[in-house]
Amino acid sequence: MKPAAIFTVDVEDWYHAAVMNRNLAGSPDHVPEKRLFCNLQYLADWLDHRNATATFFCLANWPAEINQLLRKLSDKGNEIASHGVSHKSLHHLNGKQILAELRESKEKLEQVVGKQIRGFRAPNFSITDEAIDLLPEAGYEYDSSVFNVKWHPSYGRLKQYPIQAKPYAFENGLKEMPLSTFGPDFFSIPVAGGAYFRHVPFGLYKRMAYSLAQEGYFHFYIHPWELDLKHPYPPKIGRIDKLRHFRNLHKVPERLDILAEQLQFESIEAYLSRRKH
What we know:
The chain has one domain (4-276): Alpha-Beta Barrel (TIM Barrel), CATH 3.20.20. The mean pLDDT is 92. By secondary structure, it is α/β, with parallel strands linked by helices. The relative contact order is 0.19. Strands 1, 2, 3, 10 and 11 form a 5-stranded parallel β-sheet that branches. The chain has a 4-stranded mixed β-sheet with strand order 4-5-7-6, covered by helices on one side. Strands 8-9 form a two-stranded antiparallel sheet. The chain is globular. It is built from 10 helices and 11 strands. Helix 2 packs parallel to helix 3 (64-75).
């Protein structure tokens, strides 16, 4: 029997990625091609084929065709959760703005899927102490933004609350479902997915992922654009940004299939439900 692993999706189009956003800012007349629908449909079909479920962290301002697909995903047993409204890092918002985003995204997504929205993930993992305080007030049961990578300059830095690599709860009752890392805290290796899925040697990545899953907690995440073999290039993209974003992108679908042969993917909702019994 394959060990279970959490599968989560940050529902963003390719131009929402920080490195793409930065490059497109230098070409204000360029209109980026929208690719989310076809990539999200690919993921929906892939999950069906694998008899797996996932948690989809969604922005709350998509057009009707995306919302219809999110409703179908929800009806098939996948979980829809919040990724905010504006995709702005929480570091750039005050408490009033954070609370407004939390409430608005929850309300809009609940209208889309007809179910309670229980979870939240901060854009770019930019979680803050203030957001942890506000999430229960806005009606959320769990957060999934903590990424215990102390050497990374952009990830959220909780100061008053603990940062751990396995599920835990804050004093206010909010559950935390952190992204997976491997190794000691002072130099943990990010193995949750994203760019690390493309850049870490895959043989090593598989061993670390399987080891964590066997121990009882491996949390993987991906963006729909990472499965897009026709991913657009922004104009004037620099060499470093091109390497960072596109290296091994064409290998992601095959690597994901290989990983799914070793692990049984499930949503956060399914994981938490199993822990109740």
